[in-house]
Structures are given as C-alpha cells and as structure tokens.
C-alpha cells in the first residue's frame, strides 16, 4: 500500500513539473475597430489554426427567436462577397485544410486548420465573411431546411435526445439558459430575412470577436496580414446587450417525467452552480471527476460495477459564463426502478458530503485533473480554443497558464463543502425519462 501511494505521489510531482515547464507563450492586442487578436507560435508541425470566436450564443437570443446563434454557425458557410456560394469549405479543403464550427450557450466558434503556407488564405476568407457574409433569401431558406433536419435527426428522433432541452427548461425559470443552442424550428421558420441581417450586424462585428492564430507562424508577419485583412472592417455601431437577468435562488426541488422512445429509464439531476472562473467552480469540476471520471470513479464503481443498477452514469459540470448546472445522469439497468436508481445516486452524493476523501484517492484525483488539463493543451486546436475562451468569456487569456494552479489549490475540505452547499434537494431539478410504454399503464 505504501509503495502504491508513493508511486501516486511521484506521478503527481512529475505532472506538476511538466505543466510548469510547458508555459504557453502568446501575444495579444486590439485593433482600432475592437477586434481582439491572439497569436501563439508553435513550429512543431507546418500547420496553422485560424479561429474566430464571436461572443454570442443562445443566451443572447430573444425568447421568441431561439436558435439564431446556431443558425449562423451554418449560415456563415454560405459564402461571402468574394467567396462563391457553397464554396467556402471547398476552398479550405482544396488548400489542404479542415474547417468546422460549434455553438454554445455563450459563444460561437469557427476554426480552420491549414498548412502554414496557406495562412494568408485563411485570414482573407475569415475577414471576408466578417465584413460581408452572404445573408440573403436563398442562403437563409437553404439553411432553414438544414437546421430543421439536424434537429430532427440529432434531437427529436434520438433516444434521450431531448434530455438537455428538458433539463434546462426545468432547471431555469427566467434566465435564457432555459433554452438550448439548437433552438426551436418554429421560430427559425417565422424569422424574416431582416431579422437575420440585424443579428449579423449586431453580433458579427470586430468588437465582438476574438481572432486567435496559432502554429507555424512568424509573429510580425502575421500581424501585418491581420492588419491588411481585418483593420479596414468597421467597428459595429449597434449596442451589444448582454443578458442581465439573474436566475432566482431555487427554494424547492423541481420534478418532471418525460416519456420517450427508449427501452431503459434514466435519471437526471441538475443542480445550480456558480459561473465559470469562480473559486467554487474549480472544486465542483474536481467533484464531478471524483464521481464519474473513469472506470474507477465512485458512481461508476457503485452503480455500474457493484450494484449493477445502471448501465452508464456520468457527472457533468456545465459551468458557463453565467451560473450553470451540475448534472448527474444515469441510465437504469434492465428491470431497475427509476426511483431505486435515484436513491442509489443520492447515497453516493451523501458519502461525499459526510466522509472525508482519503489522501490516496485525493492524490489520484489531482493526478487525473492534471493529466486531463495537460492533454487538452497538446493539440493546436485545444490551445486556440482555450486562448479564445479565456479572453472572451473569462476576461483573462493568461488563465491558460494559471488555471491548473486554481484546480490544484482545491482541498479535500473544499470538495465536502461544495457538495454540501450545492448538491441539495432544494437546489435541483430531477427528471425521470421513462419508456413510452409506461405511459399507458
């Protein structure tokens, strides 16, 4: 046992040394039009990442026009003034690159991975759609159908597909987090071309964007290219309004039963937690790893391996720009009652609240957190996304070099404290997903 503990401690020490020696160097500055630029040089491979993060997500939408942020994730690939319709992705791929995008509650993120000798092409294309994307009737109608089909295939027709949608709608009463980024097809159908153009003019402006360029680049030469392509784009003039509404403190447990086209019941528990970057958010992150991070995690060992009450279980910290949710999800094993499964989850949460974690398990947890964090920085894509997020959503780009320290500053007492403070019945919403066959009983 002593030898095992010693090896665990030595692993932790080596990981810490590796993290400290791998400082991420970057340069950041603002153009006069408000565009924030982050440059990170890494000549390991002859590739560059060109990324744009717009500080707009589903929480910036009107209640009767949900889905706009996600819609633009698609619409921005229609083309621009100098890129023919439908040719955006082809041009990147023809240059040996890859391109994609994603949308969250808080931001929309576009990225290109290109051979380093194609850096100018990537910057020109990104600037052209920031300046003059194709927002016209043909493109809007095309993407209406694409987005509706995506929702149908990925959400409506998938087992448990509406889980996130129902969870957030149950957990939030007033904050715009109560709808998810995929939005509503009916609102996308109702929206006019003018509304889409207004959304573009409001949020797709330099002063609401972070341009992050990383990889095999020359910093001074890249600055000149950024100046050439992006500086002439005018600053946005429409006020960008951020949601100021605060979700009221929850005073009693909320519950919902959803009948779905599934075979096995599921339990979802959603607890309100502080916003990302707060001290408690780091303790909660570690707590979720303790509960479900890997095969030997507490929930997996108890519910899946030992009791065999669940076929899968997960704890997910959805820590966001505004206060978010800590979600426990478990799918029941065949023949297991959903209430029995819920009680089993609660029993494991009570253990965390009442029983101090051992030194060995805590060191293992710290090692796991370090490994995950360091691995997340090994790819160019991982670093550019973190650099952009830390600036746009946290207001501190250098968190890429200091956030691990914040995670490792969490103590065993912190884990017990946040479990007792936030994982309470009056602070949660509980959903039971049941097979449609049970509805007729």
Q: What are its keywords?
A:
alpha+beta, 5-stranded mixed β-sheet
Question: Mind explaining what this structure looks like?
Answer:
The protein is an alpha+beta fold and 441 residues long. The protein is 45% helix and 18% strand. The chain contains 16 helices and eleven strands. It has helices at 2-21, 68-75, 88-94, 119-132, 137-156, 163-171, 185-190, 193-203, 219-230, 279-292, 298-306, 338-354, 359-375, 380-392, 399-408, 412-422, and strands at residues 27-30, 36-41, 47-54, 98-103, 108-115, 209-215, 254-260, 266-272, 310-318, 325-332, 428-435. The strands form two sheets. The protein has a six-stranded mixed beta sheet, with helices on both faces. Strand 4 (98-103) and strand 5 (108-115) form a beta hairpin. Helix 2 (68-75) packs across helix 5 (137-156), helix 4 (119-132) runs parallel beside helix 9 and helix 10 crosses helix 16. It is globular.
| Helix and strand sequence | HEEEHHEEHHHHHEHEEHHEEHHHHHE
Provide the structure class: alpha+beta
Largest β-sheet summary: 6 strands, mixed
Helix content bin? 40-55%
End-to-end CA span:
53 Å
Give the strand line-up of the largest sheet. Answer: 1-2-6-3-5-4
Low-confidence stretches: 1-20
